[in-house]
Amino acid sequence: MSSEEDDVIVEVISGADEVPEVRVADVDDLTRLHLAVGAMTDEDVDGALRAAGMGRLADGDTGFVDVAALRAAAQPQATAADWAERFDGMVTQAAEKGWTGDDGASLQVHIEPAASA
């Protein structure tokens, strides 16, 4: 496993005026993906993910990230020439391991505390 600094991270943190902000970080390492959550309620996190079109919470430990939204947010930040192929490989591997939502369009992710929390 790679370290937290090397993961693709979907962060939900308190932004300006305490409004939750959703952003994608560390997009070049596609070996691991997690949801990093700041100090806020599950309801606030779920609402922010849904409002951003990025996904939803299943519970306090698990979320689902929309594959198309993740690609759209992450790809403009990517620097590797083969990023798109590696992203597709990450999605395929997650599907093979059963780490997808019932809709088939989202990836199941573990929730960890945000570094800024």
Give a written overview of the molecule.
There is one protein chain. With 117 residues, this protein is α/β, with parallel strands linked by helices. It has 3 helices and 6 strands; from the N terminus they run βββαββααβ. A 6-stranded mixed β-sheet has the order 2-1-3-6-5-4. It is globular and about 40 Å long.
Distance between the termini: 23 Å
| Cα gyration radius (Å) | 13 Å
Helix content: 25-40%
How many individual β-strands? 6
Sequence stretches where pLDDT stays below 50 over 5 or more residues: 1-5
The general outline is globular
SSE string, helices as H and strands as E: EEEHEEHHE
Number of helices: 3
Task: Walk across the major sheet and give the strand order.
Answer: 2-1-3-6-5-4
Largest sheet: 6 strands, mixed
Total individual domains: 1
Topology:
Layout: E1 8-14, E2 20-25, E3 33-37, H1 42-51, E4 55-57, E5 62-66, H2 67-74, H3 83-96, E6 106-113
Parallel strand pairs: 1-3, 3-6
Antiparallel strand pairs: 1-2, 4-5, 5-6
Properties at a glance:
6 strands, 117 residues, alpha/beta
What's the short version?
The protein has helices at 42-51, 67-74, 83-96, and strands spanning 8-14, 20-25, 33-37, 55-57, 62-66, 106-113.
